[in-house]
Amino acid sequence: MKGIIHCWALAGMAFLLGAAGQAAADKQKVYRNIASDHLEGILKDLDISFKKSTGKTDSIVYLDFEKGKTRFRLHNYNGNDLWIDVVYPGTSLEQVNRWNRKTLSSRAVLFTGDKQTSTYLECQLDCQGGVTDGMIRRFIQRFEIDAAAFAKFLGKQEDK
Amino acid sequence: MVCCCVLLLCANGLVPAQDAKDPKDSKDARDVAELKVHTSISAEHLEGLLKGMDIDFKKTALKSKREGHYFAFARGKFKLGLYDHGGTELMVVSDFKALPLDFLNQWNRGRKQSRAVLHQGGKREFASLESVLDVAAGVTDDTVRHFLRRFEDELKQFDKLVHRSETREEEVYPSLPPEHLEKILKLNKVAFKKTAGRKAGNFIYAFSRDSYKFRLYDFQGSDLMIEATFSPAKLDQVNRYNLTRKFVRAVLHQPASGNAFTTLEANLDCTGGVSDSIVAYFLQTFLDETRQFDRYLSKLN
């Protein structure tokens, strides 16, 4: 009898170990278009106060917010894709590329305008393939971390 | 502009002429007005109507065999086009991305004024909502205004329905174990070669598609990064590409030993929760991005 119980216990453990290797999934809503009020709701849930404005057309919505001294702009392009960026002073293309080599989620670009050169740290989320609320929250929060790291990175580069 | 007749109309519809010979005598006199009925509308008259509705439009001549004009304008977040076919027929349209035929059919079954159509065979597949006003049958200025306003209302309803159809419940995973990722790759007919990364739990999946070689990095199931390698480009060329594209990152690598090369990269953060379809879309769109980047580099050389 003890042997049978032992066998069942081993089988149970094997099942649990096997299950641990599986990702625990749950049913969630997957959106392929993010309405502005939905996005605004997520920002409110994250305790982010924002200022809303529109772009060339009403379908382009900008949500501006600040964290510390950093100004973020979250763009919603007709619900199809989200774009978040922070503008920094101009730097060299080498530095921009160095950041892009080491980063995972964001990218830096150098923008040379008529009057001044700026560096943009930006990240985009393609909603057309499907996004969850968690993905959007993570997209914003991770970018905030990246922006802080990028500011440090630029500071260090300037010190050299 | 051809004005064929003058009718007496009331706000609720047509009033028989004999019943309204002297509208002043009627207690509903204030609701009755003489309105011109057109069987053809000139472009100038249409422009006036649009301006009267505070519509800023861009007018172009129709390139098709039919004579007429096209008026492009925006209403809220929607882009609309108004086709004026020789002044005798007006068609208002608004485009959407391609939608399933059964969805469009479901809309068309319950509608009187507008119809939803899938356009295939051209450079891109897309859907549109459209409505036609037969001017030749006789219309007033109010008919045209009502036609446009009603279409705008229908457009909002259609858009809401599209949004609802785009949201569905799926199995969402907070992280992707290698077995699950491999299952998605196999389902998408990706034949890969798997190697372990330097850090425990990291894996690299190498595979080919359309003569391109890809490496998919799995960072402990929480992050996916896909890259394709190309010949080197100048830093300003790499930066210019990043300025014009979304969702990807072009990077120049100049190792101390070995040749310089460029990579195109994209990431998917899985910790917010991802479904199989999201991962599949990530892989598929990167293939399209790779083709684009390849074309960009080819033009430089």
Strand line-up in the sheet with most strands of chain A: 2-3-4-5-7-6
Shape of chain B: elongated
Tally of extended strands of chain A?
7
**Structural class per helix/strand content of chain A?**
alpha+beta
**Rg from Cα of chain B:** 29 Å
CATH architecture tag of the largest domain in chain B: 2-Layer Sandwich
Helix count of chain A equals 4
Which CATH-level-2 architecture of chain A?
2-Layer Sandwich
Strand content of chain B: 35-45%
Broad structural category of chain B: alpha+beta
Return residue spans of chain A where pLDDT drops below 50 for at least 5 consecutive residues.
1-21
Number of strands of chain B: 16
User: Secondary-structure element order of chain A, as H and E?
Assistant: HEHEEEEHEEH
Tally of DSSP helical segments of chain B: 6
Helix content of chain B: 25-40%
- Give the overall pLDDT of chain B as a whole number: 87
Task: Describe what this molecule looks like in 3D.
The complex is a heterodimer of chains A (160) and B (301). Chain A has 160 residues and is an alpha+beta fold. Chain A has one domain: 2-Layer Sandwich (Yope Regulator, Chain: A), CATH 3.30.1460. Chain A has helices at 2-21, 36-45, 93-102, 133-159; strands at 26-30, 51-54, 60-67, 70-77, 81-89, 107-112, 117-126. In chain A, strands 2-3-4-5-7-6 form a six-stranded antiparallel sheet. The longest helix of chain A is centred in the C-terminal third of the chain and has 27 residues, at 133-159. Chain A is globular and about 45 Å long. By secondary structure, chain B is of the alpha+beta class. Chain B folds into two domains: 36-167, Yope Regulator, Chain: A; 178-300, Yope Regulator, Chain: A. Chain B is 30% helix and 37% strand. Chain B is built from six helices and 16 strands. Chain B is elongated and about 85 Å long. The two termini of chain B are 57 Å apart. The model of chain B is unreliable at 1-25 (pLDDT under 50). At the A-B interface, strand 1, helix 3, strand 6 and helix 4 of A face helix 3, strand 10, helix 5, strand 15 and helix 6 of B. Strand 1 (26-30) of chain A pairs antiparallel with strand 10 of chain B, so a sheet runs across the interface.
